[in-house]
Design brief:
Length: about 375
């Protein structure tokens, strides 16, 4: 990697990132391996804690990408000169939890980035990132949509199986050493209704098809693309105004919506009340897209079979939430996508986009900043 003079001066603080890794870096994709050096170059600012293990992936950046600095906040980047700030054309925001910058951190450095052209977020959701200067300005924003989809789809199908096979009953019987055979349910032939048929929704549909389930979906645009028709993932596509119809027709409802002002409590009380008595509710999108109070009422009153939830309206989930103690809730603390691989893979995707940026090809995962995804 090439560094600006200011980074070289602080090399001791960065050396641990680029020394031999303590774990295997994920295989670089063939497009990176076969990349022919472009005559273009740019300066990159990485907004992240310096000790993120996934940063070892940045060793695979082309030599004509110069990392100006790595830091989570303005204070951690205080060694940058005015010329350094002005030279930055690309910003990468990455890291998890305490290693990630906040929206306020990025807003604080934003006035310094007068020549910024492209910002990449290593997350898929944008609700904790967007701010007026970014939304209304000319900077192109991309995200990591797609990197997390398969692990979330696995969680969704696990939630379906949890209730189909009645795992709570199996665990109780095991604890009592009670041999008690009973009739279980197949997923085959059941209907999965997917609310938000984007990348995560399509990943859920692929796994549902492997179980030979019927799949119906809901999104703003009901027409199927050529590739969607060819893949045959969905039997019926509903429009946004047909939410209750989809939920009433589904044995398993999977929510895979991003959070925006338009999707706030999109899955409302009326829609939840339309669910079948034996239906299961799964959420792998965002908690605030669901009327959680209405969902809790349906679960407490046993008007639906159960819910498998990875996301919640308030996170961490408050200790007084009824969801903790409800026996018909399969609960995960928003970690269904936090695999050993995901942060490494999201930076590999960034490098794929770097090659496109250098070659002046269209970037992947360009976000609509006004819509919020």
């Amino acid at each position: 990697l090439r560094f600006s003079n200011s980074v070289i001066a602080h090399r001791s603080t960065h050396y641990n990132i680029f020394s031999p890794p303590t774990r295997r870096c994920f295989a670089v994709t063939s497009s990176i391996k076969n990349y022919k050096m472009s005559s273009n170059s740019f300066n990159l600012l990485v907004v992240s804690s310096k000790d993120g293990p996934e940063l070892e992936v940045l060793k695979h950046l082309p030599l004509n990408v110069n990392i100006v600095g790595i830091g989570r906040s303005f204070n951690e980047l205080s060694h940058l000169t005015e010329d350094d700030w002005k030279s930055v054309t690309v910003l990468l925001s990455c890291g998890v939890g305490a290693r990630a910058a906040t929206r306020a951190d990025i807003q604080e450095i934003w006035p310094k980035l007068v020549n910024l052209e492209w910002m990449h977020s290593a997350s898929a959701g944008l609700e904790h990132l967007l701010f007026p200067e970014l939304v209304n300005g000319p900077v192109t924003l991309t995200n990591a949509k797609g990197v997390y989809s398969h692990s979330l789809a696995e969680f969704a199908l696990s939630g379906c199986s949890w209730f189909a096979k009645d795992f709570p009953r199996l665990l109780r019987a095991k604890g009592l050493k009670n041999w008690d055979p009973f009739e279980v349910e197949e997923l085959r032939g059941r209907t999965m209704g997917i609310i938000g048929f984007g990348d995560i929704g399509r990943a859920c549909a692929r796994l549902a098809r492997a179980y030979r389930m019927k799949v119906i979906g809901l999104r703003r645009r009901t027409a199927l693309s050529e590739s969607e028709t060819r893949e045959g993932l969905v039997d019926i596509m509903y429009g946004n105004n047909e939410l209750s119809d989809l939920m009433a027709s589904s044995d398993y409802v999977v929510v895979a919506l991003p959070y925006t002002p338009m999707t706030d409590k999109f899955v409302n009380r009326a829609a939840i009340n339309s669910m079948r008595a034996n239906a299961v509710f799964v959420n792998v999108g965002r908690g605030k897209t669901v009327d959680e109070a209405a969902l809790i009422d349906a679960l407490v009153e046993k008007r639906i079979k159960g819910a498998a939830l990875d996301v919640f309206a308030t996170e961490p989930l408050p200790s007084d939430s009824p969801l903790w103690s409800l026996p018909n809730v399969f609960l995960s603390p928003h970690c269904a996508d936090k695999t050993r691989e995901f942060q490494f893979e999201t930076l590999e995707f960034f490098i794929e986009n770097v090659l496109r940026f250098l070659d002046k090809r269209p970037l992947l995962n360009v976000c609509d900043k006004n819509v919020g995804y």
